[in-house]
């Protein structure tokens, strides 16, 4: 039987003063004798914390959870920004490389146009040389025939002196030279002129074909460059922004330089051709000690070469025409006095009237050149070639938290993923071709440098498709194109 516990009565505090606060009655003390440890206890503690402590408990947990969520959001945002920045850098590199590849392709094309234009000039000059050769041979043939006839007549008249036979033999030899050599020159030259015209036609066709191939090649080079940087990237041509950039780029390929075939352009080509003539074609006054003068010119119809030669004997009181010759390649063009090496009208008229016509030449042809040429540097660079490169944000190496690949889970979006409005990373770049003209310090000296260092071009020549000094470089994206593209993406 468990021991009986004695409970002490509550103590009473006497009221000694009306101002002293009354103490609450104390709880009765329970006194129990010592019991065995194994005996069950019949007492139980009923102590509880104060109400104010119960109300403040758990507030730190809420703040900690809020801070944790904020840190998680910032971590995910930082992860997204860093991954997208990495993708942006790669697309920028790809866009720069692709734009430069397109400009390099166009620069190669324009240098090809310059070389073929020079080749066409050389072939037209060669036609002028053939005309000069025929014109001179006609004059020499006439002069040789006159000398042969005079030698024979003089031989007959001086036969009694014992030298007549020699003069007659000399006359026969001169006649043989005319018939076997000088008279054969036109027959030899005619197929050469026809071949030169065919070469010019082939060069003209090669320019057209080259420009078409260049456009296709530039497109392929852009695709290859983008693909080489990252197979997941693509060159944007299908969206509105891509179509706008492509349209802007086409101006550099077909607007900046194109086929020139109007009268002003052909006049320019004729001027370049005339300035490229050699001394034999330009002025032949060196023959016969200055008695003979002649020259060959490309006429202002841009289709006809005319060569005139004539010799006159100055007899003090008057000048006697003794021989003349002329030749023509291309359609008939009425002769008008010009330089022709300073030939006199007295022999120029009969030389033109008896000219040898060389068929098969069709004159200057259309060619590629800058559309709006000026004698300054304002046209020394093309318009911008704009390239837009995009890359999906769910590409394997752009593992943004919003792409479903951050942890290679390939899971659908859920409320714990941060939103991302764009589905791809975009970069835009631009390039252009420009003319790097030689300067005096780079050219040195030599016979071919004098025209380049003339007073008209003190620092070198201006941009044209007659000199292969075209190069490629990156440039700023045009403001209008950049603003439009940014608004569309």
From TrEMBL:
- Boundaries of each Putative Flp pilus-assembly TadG-like N-terminal domain copy? 58-104
- Where are the compositionally biased (Low complexity) regions? 28-47
- Mention any Pfam family matching this sequence: Tad
Write the record's keywords in alphabetical order, separated by commas: Membrane, Transmembrane, Transmembrane helix
List the residue ranges of the region (Disordered). Answer: 1-58
> Where does the sequence pass through the membrane?
60-79
Q: Which domain of life is it from?
A: Bacteria
UniProt cross-references to InterPro entries, sorted A to Z: Tad_N
Report what the protein is called. Putative Flp pilus-assembly TadG-like N-terminal domain-containing protein
